[in-house]
Write a structure and sequence with these properties.
- With about 375 residues, the chain is of the alpha+beta class.
- The chain contains 14 helices and 17 strands.
- The protein folds into three domains: about 5-170, Uridine Diphospho-n-acetylenolpyruvylglucosamine Reductase, domain 3 (2-Layer Sandwich), CATH 3.30.465; about 175-260, Alpha-Beta Plaits, CATH 3.30.70; about 260-330.
- A hairpin with a 4-residue loop joins β3 (about 45-50) and β4 (about 55-60).
């Protein structure tokens, strides 16, 4: 099924005799296997509003992300949250879409400063499981009463509604950027160093540790500002640092964002969100190659195929999501962290409210 308008989508969902598997660009095949008729949203395309002066953009959910980024680049603007492109990591084809990005709450290294996708999202339109067209938020930032559906839809993976349109606040692209690179460091030292850097007044907006142990710190802004902050940051942190600028810096952070170091390698890929202070212990218990982002708050782990990494880690504050694995492993191990009973009850109540027939990606999140 491939609706070409919001009204067509509403009719298709309302009349669906059974489960629907929602598909946007087909680049984020994450979650438990879903059995159902495929409902594609790539017919809902187009930028419906772009006001550079107001730093606001509205696009239909099936719009390729590349189209949005190209339009923003012409005005020297960008999406602040640096959305991840999962194609290399997952071996996927297709083109990332606006709706898929929001449904996954896809957010990159700049999240430590700019927030996640949901923090830049200011409005949504979607069709719920009963075929009703719902709108929440708008084209400017404002408070709302009742459900904050804008935030709720980000990261819901198409289980509460099928997105049809999304509105974003934007930011200008800075003049330049620079990245500081350390030598190899153990996880405990790396996390302490990243925390120190993020706590300085020098506006570090990227803090990551690669598989080989090197810490990377990014600063962006006007050229004179970046030059000053780079020198001051090195002095504050001490030690020996290499520096890369502009294009080389951007390429480095694209690789961090997309976890390309694990692309094409054997094994399952897990995404672990923890308190940065807990990261060294998690890395030690994982016992496999890892990359860190968000100052240690995000760990990517490359585990042997079929490994239940949650069982290996034991209890911890955070959650582990199975991102890449065979269909057999995904059928045996829940992709998403099992929820505590109170939270599970809330989630079940929300799904009953927005998808009373249980037709939207049933079982994808457990």
């Amino acid at each position: 099924m491939r609706p070409m308008s919001e009204d067509d989508l509403s009719d298709l969902v309302r009349d669906a005799p059974g489960a629907l598997r929602i598909r946007g660009g087909g680049t984020r095949g994450v979650g438990n296997p879903v059995r159902g008729e495929v409902l594609e949203t790539d017919g809902l395309t187009g930028i419906t509003l772009y006001e550079p002066g107001a730093l606001t953009l509205v696009a239909k959910a099936g719009t390729p992300l590349a189209e949005v980024e190209a339009a923003l680049a012409q005005e020297n603007q960008r999406l602040a949250f640096e959305p991840m492109d999962m194609r290399a990591l997952l071996g996927a084809e297709g083109a990332p879409s606006v709706g898929g990005m929001v449904a996954a709450n896809a957010s990159g290294p700049r999240r430590v400063q700019a927030g996640a996708c949901r923090d830049s999202l200011i409005g949504v339109r979607f069709v719920d499981g009963a075929g009703r067209i719902v709108k929440n938020g708008g084209r400017v930032m404002k408070n709302v009463t009742g459900y904050d559906l804008v935030k709720l839809m980000a990261g819901s993976w198409g289980t509460l509604g099928v997105l049809t349109e999304c509105s974003f606040k934007l930011l200008p692209v800075p003049e330049t950027e620079a990245t500081l690179l350390s030598g190899p460091l153990e996880p405990e030292v790396a996390v302490a160093l990243m925390s120190q850097a993020l706590g300085t007044p020098f506006e570090v907006n990227g803090a990551a540790r690669s598989e080989d142990g090197r810490v990377a710190l990014r600063i962006e802004g006007f050229a004179k500002q970046v030059a000053y902050r780079r020198t001051a940051l090195i002095a504050a942190l001490e030690g020996t640092w290499d520096t890369v600028d502009a294009e080389e810096s951007r390429a480095h952070w694209q690789a961090v964002r997309d976890v390309t170091g694990f692309a094409g390698r054997e094994g399952d890929v897990w995404r672990i969100s923890v308190r940065p202070s807990d990261a060294p212990g998690i890395v030690a218990r994982a016992g496999c190659p890892v990359q860190m982002d968000w100052g240690g708050g995000l760990i990517w782990a490359l585990a042997p195929e079929g490994t239940d990494l949650r069982a290996r880690l034991g209890a911890f504050r955070g959650h582990a999501t199975l991102i890449r694995a065979s269909e057999a492993t995904r059928a045996a191990i829940s992709a998403f962290q099992p929820e505590a009973a109170p939270l599970a009850a809330i989630a079940q109540g929300l799904r009953a409210k927005f998808d009373p027939r249980g037709v939207l990606n049933p079982g994808l999140m457990g």
